[in-house]
Amino acid sequence: MKRIFLIFLASLLISPVLFAQDKAGDAFKKKFSTGVDIFNDFVMDAPDGIDFRTINQGINLYGLYTYPIKKSNFALAIGVGLGMHNLFSNGVLSDTSSVSFLALVPEKDANNGDIDYKKSKIGLTYLDFPAELRFKSKNGIRFAVGAKVGVLLNAHTKYKGDDFTDGTKTKIKESDLPNFESWRFGPTLQIGYKWINLTGYYSVTKIFKKNFGPDIYPVSIGISLRPF
């Protein structure tokens, strides 16, 4: 997490310099730039009884190199980045006979006491490789359509609340979990003005491997801060 925080700070420091060099009327130029996406995940196809929170905040940090298409308002861009997702729900990840699945947080513990909890989430971090076709107009309108493929670096769960056996307060974090899909792929979209954009990503791949968990997948919508 410290490395991720340092990357985030570096992006914030470098990006304003790059923003200042990007003018609305200029054709694209070869350059490397950094960006930050702050987004919310909407979880699709959740199992019956499992309710995901409305707000599932996440962040993308990335660098992209721009390749102009001649002296036009179009360009190609490719790069690398980190995608971090937090999926909060009323479920907990269980593992039985090597099959991972989401189960409801029980209402009662083993002693028939009420269960109260503050947090139950799945955290996912990907190494992403985005590519996109960009367009910018003379009045500063920007548009980009593309796709990204990602490799799963880390999958973990966090639970904070009452223990299911005796009701005592507990914090549980589990990492290196099996049965998560090891890669992801999906289309991306950016539209905005100068360096402020709306961003969207649709995950074609599911979070869990086939037959090893529910067929859930995120749709990410947020704000992107970057030059182009």
What would you note in describing this structure?
The chain is mainly β and 228 residues long. It has one domain. It is built from 1 helix and 11 strands, in the order αβββββββββββ. The chain has an 8-stranded antiparallel beta barrel. Strands 4-5 form a two-stranded antiparallel ribbon. Strand 7 (141-162) and strand 8 form a beta hairpin. The longest helix is centred in the first third of the chain and has 20 residues, at 2-21.
Task: Map the helices and strands.
Blueprint lengths: L1 H20 L9 E14 L12 E12 L5 E15 L2 E6 L2 E6 L12 E20 L4 E22 L6 E6 L8 E11 L2 E7 L14 E9 L3
Antiparallel strand pairs: 1-2, 1-11, 2-3, 3-6, 4-5, 6-7, 7-8, 7-9, 9-10, 10-11
Question: Which properties best describe this structure?
Answer:
228 residues; mainly beta; 11 strands
The oligomerization state is single chain
Q: Span from first to last CA?
A: 28 Å
Give the spatial strand order of the biggest sheet.
1-2-3-6-7-9-10-11
Q: How many domains make up the 3D coordinates?
A: 1
Helix content: under 10%
Task: Please provide a brief summary of the model.
The chain contains one helix and eleven strands; from the N terminus they run αβββββββββββ.
